[in-house]
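Researcher: Structure prediction, please.
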Amino acid sequence: MRRPPGPSVRLKLTLSYAGVVLVTGAVLLAVVWLFLLRYVPDSSQGLLGISPNRFLLSRIFGRAAAVAMGLLLVCGLVGGWFLAGRMLAPLTRITAAARTAGGGSLSHRIRMEGRQDEFRELADAFDTMLERLESHVAEQRRFAANASHELRTPLAIAQTLLDVARRDPTRDRDEVLERLRTVHTRAIGLTEALLLLSRSDRGTFTREGVDLSLLAEEAAETLLPLAERRGTTLDVTGTAAPVRGSAELLLRMVTNLVQNAVVHNLPAHGTVAVHTEARDGAAVLRVENTGPVVPPDLVPTLTEPFQRGTERVRTDEHAGAGLGLALVHSIVRAHDGTLDLAARPEGGLVVTVRLPATR
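Model: Predicted structure follows.
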């Protein structure tokens, strides 16, 4: 934004300091003039013939007062300029850091030393903002790079299939079409997940009354054939858990959790327990499943986009792009909730979602 040039804050503070000093000195001189000189006799002989009269004292006092006011003005300007510079020095560092950040360098920090005051509180808040901004930008860059890589993979496979079919006209066309359909289905699913993740991050959705228990039943009914094929027992229990939010996003959240619990389970005789309840002003959804042991250091990374983990990579038709729990985390965050993941000692995960409850 273009602004016309104006006086600096340091000059304004200097003039303010000097003005305060001059006004204070003038008040003191006025008090002396009114309450001291008024009692001096105004006679030619002075007080008892030996003291100066009011006229003589006024002339002497007036000259001294003028000199004193001049000295006060000089001291006010010089001292005010020095004090203003000392007071505004932290603000100069904050401004320089802001300009550095505006130029694209987010790694710079002010780290202002000294005891706590308003400027140091502002500097600490600015450093915290830069840390979060740098982390967010780095996360967005990683997300863009990973998304490009994930989208490039099915496209490259499709291109290879088309090249093979073109070089080999005798190849079974139905087989090529079926493999192309599978590849494009996965690419479409990945694109839709990315769009949904972007939408939940922006929070651009309409909020309405939603019951998590009904969404859990709907998701379980949809995924029941998948659970039966894998020999997994799917159980839904609990009571009503009303919240306000997007029914579409919350259904996707519950579906992703239940699907992950079914897919990342034991090869046979696995279990998935889904429980909903309203407790302590929050609507709670808990999804617990059996499965292979998850290393504790792997659990915090499961909500990051494209972070599948070595133990969670699959090669069947349900191989994902690592966006399931990332999308769940984004939806929970957009609904002002919390997401907690805990590894079960005997294997599997316990995922707990807490959202603000409504009546």
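Model: Residues 118-167 form the longest helix (50 residues).
Researcher: Thanks, that helps.
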